[in-house]
Write a structure and sequence with these properties.
By secondary structure, the protein is of the alpha/beta class. It has 17 helices and 14 strands. Strands 1-2-3-4-5-6-7-8 form an 8-stranded parallel β-barrel, surrounded by 8 helices. Strands 9-10-11 form a 3-stranded antiparallel beta sheet. α1 (28-41) packs parallel to α2, α6 crosses α7 and α14 crosses α15 (389-400). It is globular and about 70 Å long.
């Protein structure tokens, strides 16, 4: 990958390490949605998955490579252990991409060598060189990672990196795998690599961080000051354990403080040119999409994208903001894609105004999706006096994330209270156009609705996650429901938004069941084709 020396490469691992966050499993369709948004965001590299890990991961990497890996799009990357079968699977999955990258890794710390790999330093040194060379036989762009680098003996680390670069690695990644290091230590490690690896000028130094003691962003910024030129991070900081370094935080730190960081990348301090290729106005939208699809809610006080990030309650702060925003805001909310959230549409607004406002918010829907979204908007306008941009965003996201329509919710009625048994009646339209009605009781109204739906759509499944999030404040707020259900070893998700959270819950559940039902039908067709 060609690198402008005064720019920082943003490598996004939301779809790989981010997905390893407990409860954040994504299906192929969801990964595609996120990958397309990451491309709009402007990330340089998308790590689409771990191709050898499972058939689902292989398919996801391949689909992302096909859909997003265009000539003008990002580099598409697949992770692979330093094992031939892993590397071969990664190469195969990346074939559709115009620009592909194999990212192979092996542990280098004493504790990993002794207890995990059970190999000597000499053996790992040989494996590193051999497997990088093998990856290089498939494509030119090869990244090599020394897992648990921050707990590795520096002198040994230098040897492994030198061997990997000699074998053809174009990027060498220094992961803080367990979130162990501190900024000064990490900066010194990167500086040591720059000074002690003889052929380091032939590769880009990358860093991968975790936030176990809350130092992910600080470590990355110190790494940049000492020569790192690629940062591996995830949207909303999701990932293993306490998560990865948050993309939005490190990008905005480099954006807001670029005058400070400019000299470290060889620029004049006064330069206003961005340090990354990220379109910061897409940050908030990307954060919302990842939060919705993973079901991982963003805490209100989260830096950059939290609900309170631009809120001011203190009277002194409010007074300062009214006089001059710069008194208490170091960045403009619009710079990350937030608007003033003013009411611009209502029940008398037309289709063209609706389309135009969605485009301003970053949504360019196909005509059929736009028509469905417009009908939902009109329905909402009859229920709510004030329609905000967040409401419009929820409607658009709901349409984008909707599953192929097989079963459709026609009616939901519930009866519940502290002196009655929760009871639900549902009517669903089947793929054949028939209307089927059934009823059930449950521990609560949503449980009763789901049991009634299961009586109509008789497909075994286990509900493993249910989350509700309010889009705006107020008694008439839209509620967004995200659910996940498991069938055998696969997870299917559903999402819906409505002012009535019981209705949204029913629609989200049916969306997930439609994905499951569609998958089973596809498998049956494939099986019949093989038998023929």
């Amino acid at each position: 990958m060609s690198q402008e020396q005064d720019k920082i490469i943003i490598f996004d691992t939301t779809l790989r390490d981010g997905e390893q966050c407990p409860g954040a499993t994504l299906n192929v369709d969801e990964k595609l949605l996120i990958a397309k948004q990451l491309a709009r965001l402007g990330v340089d590299v998308i790590e689409a998955g771990f191709a050898y890990a499972s058939p689902g991961d292989f398919e996801a990497v391949k689909k992302v490579a096909e859909a997003v890996g265009t000539e003008n799009g990002p580099v598409i990357c697949s992770l692979a252990r330093a094992i031939k079968n892993d590397i071969k699977a990664a190469a195969e999955s990346l074939k559709p991409a115009a620009k592909g990258r194999i990212h192979t890794f092996i542990s280098t710390s004493d504790i990993h060598l002794e207890y995990q790999l059970k190999k000597t330093k000499a053996e790992v040194l040989e494996i590193a060189g051999e497997m990088v060379a093998y990856a290089k036989s498939f494509m030119d762009d090869v990244e090599f990672s020394t897992m648990d680098a921050t707990r590795t003996d520096p002198e040994y680390l230098y040897q492994v990196l030198e061997r990997a670069i000699a074998a053809g690695a174009t990027t060498v990644n220094i992961p803080d795998t367990v979130g162990y290091t501190t900024p000064s230590e990490f900066g010194a490690l990167i500086k040591g690599i720059k000074e002690n690896v003889p052929n380091i000028d032939q590769a880009i130094i990358s860093v991968h961080g975790h936030n176990d003691i809350g130092l992910g962003v600080a470590n990355f910024l110190e790494a940049v000051k000492n020569g790192a030129r690629q940062l591996e991070c995830a949207i909303n900081g999701i990932g293993e354990r306490a998560g990865n370094t948050a993309l939005e935080e490190v990008v905005m730190a480099l954006h807001v403080r670029r005058q400070y960081f400019n000299p470290f990348v060889g620029r004049s301090a006064e330069s206003e040119a961005p340090l990354t290729n990220i379109d910061t106005r897409q940050i908030y939208k990307t954060s919302r999409l990842v939060s919705t699809l993973t079901g991982m809610l963003v805490q209100p006080n989260k830096a950059i994208v939290g609900a309170n990030a631009f809120a001011h309650e203190s009277g002194i702060h409010q007074d300062g903001i009214l006089k001059n925003k710069l008194t208490y805001e170091i960045m403009d909310a619009e710079s990350i894609g937030l608007t003033n959230n003013q009411i611009v549409l209502g029940k008398h607004s037309g289709r063209n105004a609706f389309r135009t406002r969605l485009k301003e918010l970053g949504f360019d829907l196909p005509e059929d999706e736009l028509n469905k979204a417009f009908l939902k908007f009109k329905d909402l306008a009859d229920k709510k006096k004030d329609i905000s941009d967040w409401d419009l965003e929820a409607i658009a996201n709901d349409e984008i994330q909707s599953s192929p329509e097989m079963f459709r919710v026609e009616l939901v009625q519930v009866s519940c209270g502290d002196r009655s048994t929760p009871t639900a009646t549902v009517t669903l339209r089947t793929p054949e156009g028939k209307e089927l009605t059934d009823a059930a009781i449950g521990t609560g109204p949503v449980d009763a609705v789901y049991k009634a739906i299961n009586r109509v759509i008789n497909v075994p499944n286990e509900l493993i996650e249910f989350s509700v999030q309010s889009v705006t404040a107020g008694i008439d707020a839209i509620g967004e429901v995200t659910i996940r259900l498991r069938y055998e070893d696969r997870v299917f998700s559903g999402h819906a938004a409505n002012t009535d959270i019981i209705v949204a819950s029913a629609q989200a559940y049916v969306n997930a069941l439609n994905r499951l039902y569609g998958s089973l039908k596809q498998e049956k067709r494939s099986q019949m084709a093989q038998e023929v």
